[in-house]
Batch of 2 targets.
Target 1
Amino acid sequence: MNITMNVLGIETSCDETSAAIVSNGKEVLSNIISSSIKFHKKYGGVIPEIASRMQLETIAQVTDQCIKESGISRKDLGLISVTSGPGLLGSLLVGISFAKALSFGLGLPIIGVNHLYAHIYASFLNHKSLSLPFIALIVSGGHTSLFLVEDFDKIKLLGQTQDDACGEAFDKAAKILGLGYPGGPVIEKLSYKGNPGKIKFNCSDTKKPLNFSFSGIKTAVLYYVKKSTVHSPQTTDKIKYYGLSTMDHRLISDIAASFQEAVIDTLINKSLLACRMKKINKLVVGGGVAANNRLREKLFEKAKRGNIKVYFPEKILCMDNAAMIAGLGYQLFKKGYSSGMDLDIDNT
Ligand code: KG4
Ligand code: ZN
């Protein structure tokens, strides 16, 4: 007999407040994502205090809407899965406390899951035939990591960034160019108008071949912009002053495209190297930067030549969302894992 288990997922690790219901780890019945990004824009990055206050205000409403849109009722739920880390402390605390209260009130088991591993899981929601093992590349605003995924509870870190995360590098480069926050989508958009071969940017080498480094390329963009900024009255060391007003639009697009190309080439080369080193011909990509079309197209093309199959989640599931949390929670619960009322933030 097939028993259906509906899992309520809760995600509040950064600026999003998200609740989702996923059936048997695969079928997304509802996935509500509310972002406080517009309140952070003027600061050029996420302000933790603003994020957690917004989450406190919206989480109950987002969860109500998620249950309403799923077409099921509270009594049809079998498990609550919540992000326990890594993430912003105040934000995680809101999600965990809310999930615990619901678990207690509804008499449901609760499980805390790792946010990065949930980004890996996102591809299972779109690709029903995806199977273990595989290599996973997670590229977000806070992380850039390569994993060997043998099972949902057997995930080995192969390499990670030594300094800035990949999304963070996009955000900082955009800030240098005066393009606002978040930087990834706007750099991608401008890159379509630019020449990716115009400027030779490179990501720094790392001692270990599967590690990453993005802080050098960000500095290279800063120096290039400084050099190209003519007679700006605001020429100070503060990067925010180098912007559109003093540079030609064509040049800004070329810088954006050249920066994006160098970062993407590094992500692709290292991911395919990990596949070759581990003799695995399946690669799963996740996290906010995985929404980038140039990365998607170029990786598909290069991987195909090496006989490697690549899986991306649909774009909405690349961003932070609770469906991936519910999905991974289901798989771990099925393996016998669960948490208790002592569930706490896990930022290890
Ligand atoms: O996974 P995510 O939504 O949140 C974190 O867990 O960090 O990732 C957000 C990051 C931001 O740094 C943003 O600039 C980047 O993902 N991003 C992109 C694109 N869309 C979002 N980077 C490059 N190209 C994009 N299209
Ligand atoms: Zn994330």
Target 2
Amino acid sequence: MKHFVSVDQLTEEEIITLIKAAQENKQASPIIKDTLFAANLFFEPSTRTKMSFQVAEKKIGLDILDFTKEASSVEKGESLYDTAKTLEAIGANLLVVRHSSDNWFEELDSLNLPIINAGAGKAEHPTQCMLDLYTIYEEFGTFKDLKVTIAGDIKYSRVAHSLAKALIRLGADVFFSSTPGLESDLPEVKHTPIDEAVEFSDVMVMLRIQNERHLEGNQYEDSFYLEKYGLTIEREKRMKDQAIIMHPAPVNRGVEIDSRLVECDRSRIFKQMNNGVYIRMAIINKLLNDWGFINEDITEKRNNFNRNE
Ligand code: CP
């Protein structure tokens, strides 16, 4: 794998292999002792993805080149391409990039180092998709015939489309419960009102309204939105016994989900964040291996060495 910009790149077998690698990472982290540098280029705000990549990189043993957009030459007008090319020249071995453009990675394709998409406009957020898949797999041990509803602002979500497509490929039955005016045009996904979805779904994935991407600004009053389209306590009570609640976060408590449900027994929201570290480790390791920066034999020898140290 040259870069990781979309879950569409992965076969079903590769998705499961990465999930299993993440499970192994949760038990014991592989450690690279060579000096390899990672740079996390976040041109948009992030808490979870950026911190989770940092933890994943540190657990593997990568050195992190400190980059913040506000303190960089981006403020003097330097482009994404020139910023990335500069880091390549300085010696970065891995770039993790989040940018507001839907297809920023096309202009970086010629760079001679692996690149991971940490969010591209409203188009893709593939490592979020992978951690969502990992969390569902960890819960149910399969995707086959699971009923998964993705609810909320589907139109502007960079999570919804990749997750829906990947789940369908893996055998799940996927539904959208879209906020009116924020529907998706993905033809293979069925639509359902949230009041029906809560009763048949094994997984409810709640999405926040992406106000920052709405040209017309915030159109919904919070309590009206919750009652009409969100996951209320009353709707949660009608969910199946083993059904779970997910959300990529950040959560707008009291808008798409009642605040009391964020940490309820069914919620896997913080589990998703924890799983994000391990699946990102698996993705980074795969890329570094595929690029020949490390290989499994060396990693295994180093792990044995570390255990015996
Ligand atoms: N889920 C997610 O991408 O969160 P951040 O924007 O905080 O990284």
